TrEMBL record:
Gene3D superfamilies: Single-stranded right-handed beta-helix, Pectin lyase-like. This is Periplasmic copper-binding protein NosD beta helix domain-containing protein. Residues 193-334 form the Periplasmic copper-binding protein NosD beta helix domain. It holds the Pfam family NosD. It comes from Gimesia benthica.
Length: 416
């Protein structure tokens, strides 16, 4: 029988030999992959800085895995390659921008010397398919934007927290093709939470926006699909859409913005605002320059003034199935205190071409419908008014005018 001493020696030799055969030292890169076509996963924990890990990704693309921890930076992390993913360990991965000279935390853009296949400099450089996932990035009131992406197609930002920046939380600058921002927390930024400029086929879904200057701004774009988001406590406005068409703002909760919940301006058209709860804001939906739009099935409650305002530069609007109300809960009782009973209605301000049907106006002040003349070509029918004063009777002649004159109204080609 083998002695105990010999047995221990045998086990030690066996373990040492096995370790030597299987050990691969941890280097800056990852082990050589065995799978054909695979590229190594870059683990940032093996590099001295996050930027070094980003720079280790080949031009063909790859993934950088961020470990848990707080990582302070004083200049932007820069991503210039496509098919790139930066992923962290959720809120446990915290990138903090301590720069106080207005520099961004993360910049994503094509390389300055991007070449065409023939070797010439690309006059319209683009990179494709960049993803940011599952980490937290913060700044300070003197820093720049949190995430600043320019000319990135099919960018996807998911599960990211972007907070306390001196500029926008996220800025997508002509990220034209299919940008997506979902399940993010965008809070306490000094400018816009999510700023979209020149984007197309945009999806903004299931995000939280809180106490930014404005929650979301969409300029010079089209096909915005904004749904299922929660917007709360903004210092100015909730959603601002300008020079944009063919979009939908649906099933969002927009509460306690000091300014307006939704603003449409600068030749917006073909936009639907539906099934939103718009509560306790300074104003509700403001249509400054909007045509061919639908406002339907929204709940407007406790708006300080102008739950829905349609201005002189707007027309051809349908207003259907909305509820304008205060905090009434039945049996002659209201939920809110007597000093918090503000609840506004609809204002038609020198506009034309409006259909108002199937809406409920209850206990709103000062009027359910305020008509500022000249307002013409309006159909107001099948609405229910409870405990209100209203100017809607001024619209009777507008209904007649519409029936008699609409067929003869000249149709002019719209400007592009």
């Amino acid at each position: 029988m083998m002695s105990l001493q010999r047995m221990v020696l045998f086990l030690m030799l066996t373990f040492t030999l096995s370790f030597q055969l299987n050990y691969r030292p941890v280097s800056a890169g990852a082990a050589e992959p065995k799978l054909a076509g695979a590229r190594p996963v870059i683990h940032a924990i093996n590099y001295s800085t996050i930027q070094e890990a980003i720079d280790a990704v080949p031009a063909e693309g790859g993934i950088v895995m961020l470990p848990p921890g707080k990582f302070e930076i004083d200049k932007p992390l820069v991503i210039t390659s496509g098919d790139f993913t930066l992923v962290g360990a959720g809120g446990a991965t915290h990138i903090h921008n301590k720069n106080e000279e207005g520099l961004d935390a993360i910049q994503i853009h094509p390389p300055a010397d991007m070449k065409l296949p023939d070797g010439k400099k690309d006059p319209k450089p683009r990179i494709w398919r960049v993803q940011l996932q599952n980490f937290r990035v913060t700044g300070n009131e003197k820093s720049g934007r949190g995430i600043n992406a320019k000319w990135v197609q099919e960018i996807y930002i998911h599960g990211v927290t972007s907070s306390y920046h001196g500029g926008d939380g996220i800025f997508l600058d002509f990220c034209f093709e299919d940008p997506r921002v979902s399940d993010c927390l965008i809070t306490y930024n000094k400018a816009v939470g999510l700023n979209l400029l020149g984007c197309h086929d945009i999806v903004v879904s299931a995000n939280h926006f809180e106490e930014n200057q404005d929650a979301l701004r969409c300029d010079d774009g089209f096909n915005l699909c904004m749904s299922g988001n929660n917007l709360d406590d903004h210092l100015r406005h909730g959603v601002i859409i300008e020079n944009t068409y063919g979009s939908i703002v649906s099933a969002n909760m927009i509460e306690e913005c000091n300014g307006s919940a939704i603003i449409l301006d600068r030749e917006c058209y073909g936009i639907t605002m539906s099934a939103n709860v718009i509560a306790h804001n300074g104003k509700g939906i403001i249509l400054k320059d909007a045509h061919g739009c639908a406002v339907s099935a929204n709940t407007f409650t406790l708006l300080a003034e102008d739950a829905l305002w349609i201005g002189p530069q707007s027309g051809r609007i349908t207003v259907t199935g909305n509820n304008f109300s205060n905090s009434y809960i039945g049996k002659g009782m209201v939920k809110r205190r007597t000093n918090d009973l503000k609840a506004a209605g609809l204002t038609l301000d020198k506009t034309r071409g409006i259909t108002v049907s199937g809406n409920l106006f209850s206990s709103v002040r000062p009027k359910a419908v305020e008509v500022i003349e000249p307002t013409t070509h309006v159909i107001f029918g099948n609405n229910l008014l409870i405990d209100v004063e209203s100017d809607h009777k001024l619209l009777k002649e507008s209904i007649v005018e519409h029936v008699l004159e609409a067929a003869a109204e000249p149709v002019k080609p719209e400007s592009k």
